[in-house]
Specification:
The complex is a heterodimer of chains A (about 260) and B (about 270).
Chain A (H helix, E strand, L loop, with lengths): L1 H32 L5 H12 L3 H23 L8 H39 L2 H7 L4 H39 L4 H11 L2 H27 L4 H32 L2
Helix pairs in contact in A: 1-6, 2-6, 3-4, 3-6, 4-6, 4-8, 4-9, 6-8, 8-9
Chain B lengths: L20 E10 L2 E11 L4 E5 L6 H9 L6 E6 L2 E2 L5 H8 L2 E4 L11 H5 L1 H6 L4 H14 L16 H13 L5 E5 L7 H18 L2 E6 L2 H7 L2 E6 L2 E7 H6 L3 H8 L13
Parallel strand pairs in B: 3-8, 3-9, 6-7, 7-8
Antiparallel strand pairs in B: 1-2, 1-4, 4-5, 9-10
Helix pairs in contact in B: 5-6, 6-7, 7-8
The chains are: A mainly alpha (about 260), B alpha/beta (about 270).
Chain lengths: ~260, ~270
Amino acid sequence: MEFIRLIGRVFINFFEAAGRLGIFTLKVIYSCLTPPFYFKQLFSQFLEVGFYSLPVVALTTTFAGMVIALQTYTGFARVSAEGAVSMVVWIAVTRELAPVMAGLMVAGRIGASMAAELGTMRVTEQIDALTTLSTDPFKYLISPRVIAGLLMLPILVLIGDVLGICGGYLIGVYKLDFNATSYLVNTWNFMKPIDVISGLVKAGVFGFIIALMGCYNGFYSKGGAQGVGTATTNAVVSSSILILVFNYIITEIFFRT
Amino acid sequence: MFSFLKKSTKKTIPNGHVPKIKMTGVYKTFGEKNVLNGVDLEIKKGESLVIIGGSGTGKSVTLKCILGLLSPDKGSIKIDGEDVLNMSPHERERINKQIGMLFQGAALFDSMSVWENVAFGLLQGQKMRKKAARAIAIEKLAQVGLTEDVADMYPADLSGGMKKRVGLARAIATNPEIIFFDEPTTGLDPIMSDVINDLIVSCVKKLGATALTITHDMASARKIADRIAMLYEGKIIWIGTVKEIEKTTNPYVRQFIAGSATGPIHISAKE
């Protein structure tokens, strides 16, 4: 009897959490599309999510491009297919590495900070204070963060694409002794817009997920410092998992054979 | 569930005899704990009512229900005769524009300077220009005894008493018709508590506002209140003037104002 009760409780908790997240998401979308818009908040979130994340995204994607060139060369040498390095770097960086690496890095950087900031505002009653000052916290706090996530991640990934390809080029030409011109020509000939587009769509979805989970966990945090800590952890873990799940789903949608 | 999609409905015009705030049979449960068990309360226009009661008796929940931060399970809450529980968020914002609130921990926005905190309602709610809003903020800060040089400081640089003053300045900045005070003297020394009480009385009088204060500090209650109500186990068990409370024979009220551990109110070890 106790076991059945436990199963019931787990299911109820799951559906309750899913329902609450669903309603939160609808509210967020509604708030993003209806006035008033707080442009000052939006601009500061553009800076926070986009500009200040640039160094970490640039570093990770550059090294990801470099390492994929190295790995492909040594791995493909077994089947004498070293010439495919430039193509593999292009596909891996634009389709997978740049969006996923940027997504995970920004989830750690921005998702955590959003959850911590909103969580602290919640436990110190600053969110309640906003409501009493006739300001909708969804429009003032959450919409700017979600819009910034949605728009800035694709820009970061586009920059990451360029830097990742450059990283691969540097290793290919200066370490693996490929001819610079033929490396570039190979990459150029192999380019397809869909590779970049799929990566940018992923980036937009990841940005939305990161901001949504950061805000959701922060907004509903409770219990003081420990609650804020838990909210931060949950924001990063849940957005990282969702990024990987949606990465597969979007890949399946774009490249189903 | 989808109240955020509701369209606004027509505003009703309040009439002169309608209480400023009226709560009828308000119930609120958290899990299995009944926090409010049918609260009935009327606050007249221009009156200062103080709700006293021990920790966990539902004082804060009562306040949050009136403010719209929590939704009661049952009952009605009217402000100026308008039922605020079935309002769209847009209408609720209109009602909140006539409300000021001083939070227990002041709840100042730590990303903003002191004057931006005070002027927040003017800048965001009333779309006032920065220069004019700053001038009003400085005037309100002066009203609570703070000088202009505090205006550009940040909440992290302020002491507890100064934070309360800034919170009070923010609460009165938009000249609200109703002001709520949540434990205004908690965490302050007795002298600063008295200063804050005096400021509350003078600010409320100057604005002619209706005030609702929740506290467990009897010195504060005696100073601020026109009438005092006692909340116990989620119900208003006594209500009367400051003079009446000194003479009441209600054993619960007597125990509370005497601050005695013996009496009908038992505090279990669990609490």
